[in-house]
Design a protein that fits this description.
Layout: H1 2-16, H2 38-53, H3 57-74, H4 81-85, H5 92-101, H6 105-118
Helix pairs in contact: 1-5, 2-3
């Protein structure tokens, strides 16, 4: 994983620096009017991981930016693991790497089963 990240990191930094167009966020699990609940956050982060695993890095970065924006407005002044993870003080590329390195095959299998049941 570290080797692949070494290859991927310059591309993610390039996207993060705004040197390439980043698409509009495609994650639609959240109703922006009501804010971001911890459950919404979990599903959004899973969607971002799916985009990373599928090699759609610019879409994943757009999703990460949108989720951070929603989390910062929904949880302003609060503390917790999720708030600290998405803190504005953290570098965008650092967050992307954390999601990239967090591989959860059991969770992925569960989500695939969930998607099959709900379709």
């Amino acid at each position: 994983m570290e080797r692949f990240w070494g290859v991927l990191e310059p591309h993610v930094r390039w996207l993060s620096a705004g040197e390439a167009a980043v698409p509009v966020c495609t994650i639609e699990l959240v109703d922006p009017g009501r804010g971001l609940s911890p459950c919404d956050l979990r599903f959004c982060m899973w969607d971002i991981q799916e985009l990373i695993w599928d090699g759609r890095y610019s879409q994943a970065l757009a999703g990460l930016r949108r989720v951070r924006e929603l989390a910062n407005t929904s949880w302003e002044g609060q503390k917790g693991d999720s708030v600290m993870f998405l803190s504005e003080e953290k570098d965008e590329v650092e967050l992307f790497k954390e999601l990239f390195m967090k591989f959860e095959p059991v969770r992925k299998r569960q989500m695939n089963n969930f998607k099959q049941v709900t379709l």
